[in-house]
User: Fold these one by one.
Assistant:
Number 1:
Amino acid sequence: MARDIDLRDKISCIEESLSFVPHDMLKSLITQENVEEVLKNTNPKAHELDTWSAAYRGKLASFVIKDANAIFAILLMMKRPRRIEEFFENRLKNEILPISVIGKERPPKVQSRNMHMTMAEDRLRNTFLSSVWEPSDIREFIIKQWIFLSPVLKQSEFEFEFKFDFEMTLPWTPCYSPVEPIRGVYAQVEKRAVPISHFNLTWGQHLIAVKKLTGGRQEKNAKKEADALKLLRTIQSEHVIKGIIYFKKQTMKDSSQTFWHLEFKGEKPELGKDFLVWAVGQLFGLMDAIRMMHDLGLRHGDLKPENILCFPDSSQPGAIPVRLVITDVGLSKAHEKSTSERKEQLREATTTTVSTTRYQPPELKMQRTEDHVLPRCFDVWSAGCIFMEFLVWMLYGKKELLTFTRKTESVEYWEKDDKCFKVRKVVCEQLHAMTQDENCTNDPALVGLADLIKNNFLIIDVWSLVHGRDKNIVSRVSLTRNKSSASTKLMKTSKKLTKRIARVLTNKQRNCSDTLQERYRDTSEQATENIRKIKTEILSRTNGVD
């Protein structure tokens, strides 16, 4: 009797405290021994004693354990465990769930909402039309069923526009280590945990990021981001976010994940070999993930610390069991987009908050009003800004990072005077200070990383700027083509005109440089290879294998 009461109490507590019951929890509660004990204490009537034998109760318990543990748990919540006998006799299993009532007939007409259970409709109706089922009992069963019907997230396919009932609870809960939500102009991202029994994936772990779209254009932005997430699933990199499910719901109690910039604003790290193996390995992984995106024709276009999540992962080499993952691909740009779509995307990318434009390169300023596909080096500049802040934290810790970010928090990493674009003075000063720092100069890997940021990432790409200005001039000349006969002659000279202006602009840019040599920002392929060399050098010192 004590076991029976204990199980009933646990089921009651679950109903009061949880929005859904994980599958593994249900299995641990509804055991053969527990079920038999509950059935034994259901006090059968005198004329039922012959049929209500231990052997029969054992059969019922076996049926429950194998096929109907959710149904039995619902009946326990209703304090009607004996009614499992009707489901057993009519061969009705968990797969009939969820059920619903059709119309307003009396007695209620019950059907399964599982499209594969049409063959069981007669048996289902016979069960619920029996004399022991009052309409109020049926309503209670329908309400209580949802706590056991949270879905399993699958790897086999991206649940694109996942359809589910309004009453269904998706299988995540608040994290044991809560993190403040990340709030942007168009979305909010929070951290959530998924029970292992609801996370049928070979990659990832039980922590996920749940993103809720806010503001205007939710329908359009949701579809755009879902398309990009679906494409990103083809990238074989653990440093790119993997889409699991895309859904629409009138009200969502969602959320998930923390980004590295906040996560790592902690004490100054010990710059030992294990830490460097981890740090450079993560930067390499992020850069390689960007390269893979570029190979698919995608440009992220909004890389910033808030869009790099921090996933616990004990398999990562080095000192910290954390993996950095790129997310928020909602504004990713693809070459295959139509002209109108590219213009709209560019407008969205250039009218977001300062926190977004802070990490964007100067060519965005030149291409602000133009039909221009973002070049690959756009994301490389953004990565350089992020990697620089990462290096500041590595060398100096939280205090210096906060000081540096406050100096640049309302501005981009570049500035423009009357003559040209250039890397902002405070950024140059910080880079110079790091290259002279004893902790940096004593380690070839840190020197290499600082040099990469300075000489390969944060480069004012002259030809990206020239091409934007050049194209704008051609567009203005083209507008006059049909207005007069003189326009034809003007068009013939337009190429000479734009070449001349390009030379002038290039010369101005050169005058701002330390050298007269043209400088180009790394492509993502070059950047990945350069970081790989640093990673290899560190591993060779630690007797690791690349």
Note: DSSP finds 23 helices and 16 strands in the chain.
Number 2:
Amino acid sequence: MNGDPNGSPDGVGDATIPVEVVEGEAHAGATDAATDAANDAATGAATDPPSAGGAVAPASETGAVNEAAADGELARLQARVEALEGEKKDYWDKLLRTAADLENLRKRQRRELDDTRHDTKQRVLKEILPVADNLERALAVSTGEPDAVLDGVRLVQRQLLQALERLEVVPIEAEGQPFDPNLHEAISQQESDAHAPGTVMTVLQRGYKSGDRLLRPAMVVVAKAKAKVG
């Protein structure tokens, strides 16, 4: 058998593979493996976030953490709602109590005002009734003499003025005084030589004051200057 020194013993020639081709295929295989490994690492990093220690946490654990946080927030909100409901009830109770206190205050003030009016009326009547009694006595003992009747009436008038003074009611002095629109009400004007113009010359009805308050003005006639003749 004549063998090929570079071939098989059988003389069948094997094709020779160049060294460059073998090295190229090996390099390509290594590159593809490195690319696949990089892609797998990137995909895993995007899917599972790293844990505090750098390890990737499973998705189930992340969901459990989020659910626990939501439950805690819900519990906090429910507690806040219950607290607000309690505050609302307290405020409502206070409002009702305040309204009741105000109503009781109004009723008490109304009663006090009625009592004050009643006491004032009684005080006035107690002062006036004796005057009416004396007037009846003066008329009963009258002998028909004008002077006796006049003296009795003057006595009653004096007693009445004293009663009014005790009630802090005083007459307004008007005659001979300058006309004051705050105290006097002019009924008419008359020419007069005896009175200066603008002076009260006659009092038709006496006015009265209670303290600094005017009960009624005095009705008066006011003097004016005589018209010039010619």
Note: Residues 131 and 160 are 6 Å apart (CA to CA).
Number 3:
Amino acid sequence: MKAFIKMFKVNKKVTSKTSNLSDAPILNAEEDCLDSQLRIVDRIYNFIKKTQETQLTIAIAGEWGIGKSSAINLLINKLKNGKNIVISFEPLLEGKLEIIDILTLFYFKLYQHTGDKIKPIIKRCIKSIAVLTDANITAYAKACTPFTEIGGKIKYNVGEKIEKLLNVWDKEQPTTFSEQTAELNKALKKENHTLYVIIDEIDRLPANHLIHFLLFCRILESFNNLICIVGIDYEQAIQKLIKEDFLNSQDHKHAQLYLDKLFQVKFQIQHDKFKKNCFAKALLKKIDHEKIIITLLEQDLKISESNIGYIFGDYLTTPRQIKKLVLALTAYYAYLKAWDDKIAFIGFLAVTIKYPAIIDYLSKYTLGILTNNDPLQYIKDTYGIDFIEYKNKKNKILLASLGINELSKKSNGANNCRNELDRFINVLGIIPANYDFKTIRYLENFLASRPSLINLFVSGYISEDELEIYKDFFNENINNTLERVLRDNPTMDITVEEIAKALRERYESIIKMPEALLLNKLWDKKIIDDYWYNPYEVIISFAIRTLPIEAVIRETCISLSESYIEFVLNIFDIKNKNGSYKISDFKPPSEDELKRNNLHEVLFKDIRLCNFTIEKIREILSLWLEKAEKDLNSSQEVIYSQPRLISALYRYIQWGEALDQKNSNKLAEFIIKYLENSNILNENKQKIKEILKKERQKYENKYLGDIRDPYVTLFNNNERLKKILE
């Protein structure tokens, strides 16, 4: 790469033609097709110049290929002026070092950039480190967050050379690191120098060396007038720390907390759809001589939802992926010209760019089906008989995804396979026929998902539209799953049913932290009448337990939080007995009982349920009553249109009585305020009246046992309200 960059500097003609298509980061603003200088670099530079802080560690974050190194290069260009000293590290070349080695390298780099007044001080620092390390003393380094501790062992082995080492020690009189920094700080301040240390691509290092550089960043905070700037892919770094177990935890949240503690400021590199499409257009001008792709792109940019615009602006997430697609199109430009469905062709190449492993999958599995004399038997042998026979009408989805339109007969099927192969073998050797854009997106899902997802799809459990939901679900992304259920699939009761079943079997590994807003929306979902239970509620009941109880009360609607709190109270044997709850019935549950009900990890103000006292129950009820009172008093339609609102109204009275509160008259006034609000539609007011009317009918129905009159129980026979209701 260095030779490549050097070539650019020497031959500017070559640079102007090829630099934007190379994988190397840009070096100057003239190559900046994404306007990173204006949108990103200037913002970071202005922050650095205006901030009063002189001891900072700044993260320039973003996924691989997003343009972090390019932004850092442009930032270095702006910083290299006046009294600024810019020191760059290359972890890929210098990364396999211990902390003491990195510090020594830092001193050597600083030595190159300073004058005669400071160089003697740096020499003494380097000598001190050399003497200390020659004694084979390894310092103990540790970084702590509330959840993690990372450190190395102390080694002390003076050994045979003790006399020699003592002589060297007496002669050189090595200084401690704090003494070194104090002396250097004084000298640098006198010369009015500001230091900028640039470290890029540390996320590509193994976890142990990654941590060494992060700890080095923390050490640099001992220097005055020094700002450390680190290019890092947060997600890649977190995954390395988790998978290589250097945080002694498998928890994403803990690993992120560790990184957040090290960086005072984080700038996220992002590019919107418009910028990425303009970037693609600038690159395409270099290779699309007949303007085949550019014409498609310009036409699509005038449409709100476009296929080609989606490929470059949404589907491909980084400039590097866009460059790779343009290079791939360069290689297959002749095929593109002859291809009927050009968008499908570009789309398929985009899939292979985003998921390179798809080529191996297609070579291994798709070609096996396309070239086999008995493809149906091949599928049975490879994937199992269920793939063909279970809900047989759905097998056409699998076959269509492989470019085979119809395989009703063996002989025709085999010929069909060979014809497809012969026709498309010249394009990557593996491109099946009849791809539309939906099929391309499906193919990505089909090959990138887990076997359990493939089995569900091919066995006929789910349709193509439902596939994305299952992809998120089996990838343990509960928020995306719920969002898709709510947004894209308003009547997906069967799919939700399957998710609910899987939750009951595998909830410990499936559920991650959900968003309360999604749970509120699910709570509003209706289910078809012949279900004996509501699968949406099953999902809620598992998902909600990953949230602290105070968050459930604060963020979910009162009827949902009431239902959940009642479930929690039952665990403590505090139940509805003849219309009242007695906190004195409190009975601590066993650990096994909490596990059976999936409540063993539930927290309230960082306290687990197994450590609860009666006072914690009082706190929960008090918190819920405050929230309920606030919501009911707001007279908002959304509050009074909640499912099972009547249950929440009863608990407002009953739980209030458990805390010696008399809430009946308050509740009556809340309802009156709502019904007299001229801004509320009459049809919505009528809903509340209908709810209370049905509840009154239960009281009058002798077959439903002893149910008290709601006018008495809820409103203490408030005459004014009775007149409004009747």
Note: The longest strand covers residues 55-61.
Number 4:
Amino acid sequence: MKQSVPGAAGPRCASPPSPCCWGCRCGGGRPRRTGPRCPTAGIAALGRLPLQLSVPISVVFAPGSVPADLPRQLPYRDVREEPVPVGSRSDVAARYEELYRGTTAREVAALGAATAREADAALHALQDASPGSLTVYVVPESSPLLPQGTDVYVGKHRSALLRAGQGLAALRARLQQLTWVMSLPATSIAAALADRVPDGQLGPDARRHLKSSLGYEITFSLLNPDPKSHDVDWDIEGAVGRYVQPVLDKLSVVANFSVDSQILYYAVLGVTPRFDKESSSFLLSAHSLPHVINPVEARLGSSAASLYPVLNFLLYVPERSHSPLYIQDKDGAPVPTNAFHSPRWGGIMIYNVEAPASPQASLPLHVDVDMVRVMEVFLAQLRLLFGISREELPPEFQVESPGNEGLADWELDRLLWAHTVENIATVATTLTSLAQLLDQISNIVIKDDVASEVYHAVASVQDAMAELAEGRLRSAFQASKEAVTSSERAFFDPSSPPPPLLPRRPEVCHLHPALPAHGRSHPSLPGQDPAGRPGSARRSPPK
């Protein structure tokens, strides 16, 4: 059923006799349906975005670690609230619901392990930690689990070991520091609310993280501009299975991922490198890097037809006439990884080929790419693109490597926090824009299914906010995803007013250091035959 009504609802329902375009019983006109009340009041409330983020924390004292000035006998509960500094236009508060208790007999046995890593694994097997929660085990000052100089051990799940300090005040200071590291850093929340925070209040990386999406497409491309000189062989199929797929499996709760790969021949960079006589090499300066991507992007051919954001990871083997090729940072020093990344786009790595020992060597030279070295860089770039970067920690903190999964459970939780908050903000912006567009049009047609999507989006956002306040991160994230889906269906429905076209702001390339590889895994994936005629590209189907 369609409803054609002169006039449209703005932030509030129009007072009688002006009609309401949603066809509800709000008093704005003739009743058109007996559905929910008018959503415009709910949309206006979403724009104010009052958020409370609750984090359940268990503080567990091992024998001999209980502070003498503890205010009550164990077990007891306490609540700590503090604002999250994200800007004047958003109201976000953190509520830490802390349970203080002693260890169980099985936890005591687990804490008797030889190393902190073994203790973390044993404690994880005893826990039923929900996403967004933390468990902090306080151990005696003399505990051998924490080596000299280390007061805090952050595991790869959702727990940490904390050396008992001098009294309750020192313990609480450490707990506050630990919770900001493992759960709700202001930088992640500010980045999630980047569109609502004034530019002057944002850090340099706040607008560089990937926007939240229901899916992402990852494309690995090998660029061989000189196939007459280089016959390059890369085992992208095996590398995706061993190094990338475990990370994507971990991220599957955040979004859906598809992976493909291609080889592009005669694809050159859009910048002519400078020859350096002293080092007998070619150099790409930092200021030239932003000009590298556009000419290469025209050859990739994936972004235009994609429904989701595309992450590009390019391995470039320089032509023989421009080898070796090195990237310089802004100070003129060589970048150790010989790679750079562009926020919300992807990354490029330069892979130099050793010159043949003899000038008479036959061409093309066969090149086997070291995929371990390449994937170390690409996975580091993937973390940077998603904003999964380690905070600068005090020297007394020790953080366990996440292994072949690429990110720890608590890092995944931080990503869920940020994406949930961003989804809520996105829905509020989308629905507010829709209401404003309707307010500018004198005659509008609102279909029942469009109105239903708006009702569902508002209800889902309210559910997400309620779940966040209760500390149920996973269900809050799922509700926020549903809200995004419904709001976009309503906004982009053919019967809705067309959104204005806005120019795309270009992104700037940023250099980054390499991060170490985190373990190995050996599943196999279907892939592609890397062979192809010069100038062609072969792609594997999304997985």
Note: Confidence is low (pLDDT under 50) at residues 1-19, 27-36, 197-202, 501-543.
